[in-house]
Design a protein that fits this description.
mainly alpha; 157 residues; two-stranded antiparallel sheet
Length: 157
Amino acid sequence: MQVYLFQEREQALRLYAENDRLKIRELEDRKKIQHLLALVGPDAGEITYFHKEPPHKVTISQKQTQPTGREPLKRTKTVTRRKSSRGDEAIESPESYKKDNQTLLLQVEALQAQMEEQTRLAKEQVESLLEDRRIRVEEAQLQHQRDQDRISALTDK
């Protein structure tokens, strides 16, 4: 019975690890979307909202804007490029490094939590197996004693 319990716990830990990976991936994807939206600029008829949790079947219809005859100015972001021996490379800003550091910190925290859970599970498994072993040794000793008593009772007759 305990074997099944430990297998379920291991499966739960694998699912937690996958969930952590997916959350980090979602965070990275959101950052990429924000970056791409910043590069392209907002569209006149489109608004994007980000929720921490997805809404439960909520739909909001948008009113269509009437064209005014003027084209909206699109903001573009310029990326500084420098020549290197490998060719053109974009110089990354400290902000992008900060975002990468945040993602890496989340990964480290998730891995530390997973490692702690795995360690705790392993300790519980070892303790359980040692307890099972102790019980089986006691049962074997009792059975041996009963057999010895039965043998001595039969030899006395």
